[in-house]
Design goal:
The protein has 2 domains: about 70 residues, Winged helix-like DNA-binding domain superfamily/Winged helix DNA-binding domain (Arc Repressor Mutant, subunit A, Orthogonal Bundle); about 90 residues, no CATH class. It is about 20% helix and about 25% strand. The chain has 4 helices and 7 strands. Strands 6-5-4-3-7 form a 5-stranded antiparallel sheet, with no helix packed on it. The chain has a two-stranded antiparallel ribbon with strand order 1-2. With about 180 residues, it is an alpha+beta fold.
Length: about 180
């Protein structure tokens, strides 16, 4: 099996998953492939100890990690199962740019407002265990919101008309681990 090439050894790389016991972290290789958009041959040149078979193993390892996620890494709270999400309902959770999102069951994704350089616009984002790129930018959905202080339309051209501060209502809760 390809993922057997990824090992976790307490005395090697601080217990982080590494490739075949080498001092090369699996996540570093994956970041090179995805974040930096490096071609396989570029990654192999950067890490000459790697073998071509290591790259599919890294991809398979990361896919398995993504698909098996059950908790938000920051808050430790359980992620709501996808089959419990209701079309059109609002949810509290966490992604890089929002803590409130609305589930679109037809498109199988969340919609949320994003603020960037004083501009607020709609963005779509995936469920945490979906194999999507970028894998790190998903909405870790943890709780349904019975009421939301603003509307999130399923329309990429929508204009935000709510109170900007309401977008950040759950920011401190969703970016800290409960005591």
């Amino acid at each position: 099996m390809a993922t057997e090439r990824i090992t976790v050894e307490a005395d090697n790389m601080d217990g982080k998953p590494c490739v075949r016991g080498l001092p090369i972290k699996a996540w570093d290789v994956y970041r090179d492939l995805v974040f930096h958009g490096m071609a396989d041959d570029e990654v192999l040149r950067k890490h000459p100890e790697l073998e071509p078979e290591d790259l599919p193993a890294v991809r398979a390892f990361v896919a398995n990690v993504i698909q098996s996620r059950s908790h938000d890494e920051t808050t430790g709270r359980p992620i709501l199962p996808k089959d419990r999400l209701v079309h059109g309902h609002y949810y509290k959770g966490r992604c890089r740019n929002a803590t409130v999102a609305r589930w679109n069951a037809v498109e199988q994704c969340f919609y949320h407002w994003r603020e960037k350089i004083d501009f607020i616009y709609i963005e779509r984002i995936c469920y945490p265990t979906d194999e999507a790129e970028p894998w790190w930018d998903v909405f870790d959905v943890v709780e349904e919101l019975p009421q939301c202080r603003f509307e999130i339309p399923f329309d990429a051209d929508a204009v935000f008309t709510g109170n900007r501060d309401d977008l950040f209502e759950f920011h401190s809760e969703m970016w800290s681990r409960p005591k």
